[in-house]
């Protein structure tokens, strides 16, 4: 039985084209486990892949989708059996390996996680790679001794997938969270997630002084570039910054001053090749710590056929929160 998939090809002019196609099972890549995908999600990286705005896709044709959740149909590995509820994110899915924006995926058993107790496939993808990355950021800050009592925390790219979940997680633990956003009209929403203050992102997005007022006891940065440089310059003595994103840019026009004069720690957060133990902990904690009501309010659902059109608005920062994808419609 053929499966519906979003497929990316590259035209002679080098432009990426995205269209819905039917793929046969024997076209799927090698792997021990065949999964009936129920939900995937649309992440910043997927939008880059679909629009071709950044060289995310390493070989064509490619099925995009850096994450999925679904049910095992067939497994040649004893760790999984038909009917098991599973999820997968990262490991090059949608970049070097056909991904989750399809009704089926065949993957190595070593990459699969069981859905944590109390979480269904739709909830897992409402969280998706973005929410899981937010949890990796929170865990990174904790490893560097951040505590709610330590002082205020800054989250940049606040209205995005990572930002919204990071705010909810940190506020849920009792942190005073300031949300940096270019969309002040969404302030009420950010307050409803638990933010206690809003900062106009324009205050951070231009060149700034190497050392600024010591404002923040910890920070999650989704934006990079001048924003991250200004965040570093505004950290309190010894404070950690978890950097995961590049929504403003890949560059980091900073000085070493925050590191050598204030002992600031910059922690890189990678979700794609994070070790299995860290992944399991992150997903287990997400199942317990993220209010379900928040997830629903933060999520819009689209069908597979609607995804290509949503990529551009996502890159332009016009989408709030998360997009979950029902691959069967
Ligand atoms: P979204 O597109 O959902 O959110 C990004 C947010 O960044 C926007 O909502 C906007 O927030 C802000 N933003 C957008 N453009 C700019 C700009 N030019 N200057 C300043 N802020 C801007 O993306 P995600 O939340 O899913 O991902 C955030 C970043 O993290 C991305 O760069 C993504 O690639 C990266 N990422 C990295 C991972 C890793 O493994 N390291 C995993 C997942 C994501 P607002 O409107 O509130 O200002």
From TrEMBL:
Residues 14-325 form the Enoyl reductase (ER) domain. Keywords: Oxidoreductase. It comes from the Bacteria. Its EC number is 1.-.-.-. One of its GO terms (molecular function) is oxidoreductase activity. Transmembrane segments: none annotated. SMART domains: PKS_ER. InterPro entries: Acrylyl-CoA_reductase_AcuI, ADH-like_C, ADH-like_N, ER, GroES-like_sf, NAD(P)-bd_dom_sf, Zn-ADH-like_protein. CDD domains: MDR_yhdh. This is MDR family oxidoreductase. It comes from Achromobacter veterisilvae.
């Amino acid at each position: 039985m053929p499966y519906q998939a979003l497929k990316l090809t590259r035209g002679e002019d080098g432009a990426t084209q995205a269209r819905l196609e039917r793929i046969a099972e024997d076209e799927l890549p090698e792997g021990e486990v065949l999964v009936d995908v129920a939900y995937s999600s649309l992440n910043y990286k997927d939008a880059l892949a679909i629009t071709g705005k950044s060289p995310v896709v390493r070989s064509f044709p490619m099925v995009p989708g850096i994450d999925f959740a679904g049910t095992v149909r067939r497994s040649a590995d004893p760790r999984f059996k038909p009917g098991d509820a599973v999820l997968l994110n990262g490991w090059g899915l949608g970049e070097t390996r056909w991904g989750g924006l399809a009704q089926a995926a065949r993957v190595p058993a070593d990459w699969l996680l069981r859905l944590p107790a109390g979480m269904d496939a739709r909830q897992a993808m409402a969280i998706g790679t973005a929410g899981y990355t937010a949890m990796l950021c929170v865990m990174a800050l904790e490893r560097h001794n951040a505590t709610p009592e330590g002082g205020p925390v800054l989250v940049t790219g606040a209205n995005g997938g990572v930002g919204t979940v990071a705010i909810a997680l940190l506020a849920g633990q009792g942190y005073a969270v300031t949300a940096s956003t270019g969309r002040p009209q969404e302030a009420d929403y950010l307050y409803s997630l638990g933010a206690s203050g809003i900062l106009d992102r324009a205050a951070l997005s231009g060149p700034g002084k190497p050392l600024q007022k010591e404002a923040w006891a910890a920070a999650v940065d989704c934006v990079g570039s001048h924003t991250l440089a200004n965040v570093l310059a505004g950290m309190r003595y010894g404070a950690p910054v978890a950097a995961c994103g590049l929504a403003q840019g890949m560059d980091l026009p900073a000085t070493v001053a925050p590191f050598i004069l204030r002992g600031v720690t910059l922690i890189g957060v990678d979700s794609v090749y994070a070790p299995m133990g860290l992944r399991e902990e992150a997903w287990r904690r997400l199942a317990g710590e993220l209010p379900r009501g928040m997830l629903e309010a933060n999520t819009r659902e689209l069908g597979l056929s609607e995804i290509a059109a949503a990529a551009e608005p996502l890159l332009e920062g016009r989408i709030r929160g998360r997009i979950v994808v029902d691959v069967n419609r």
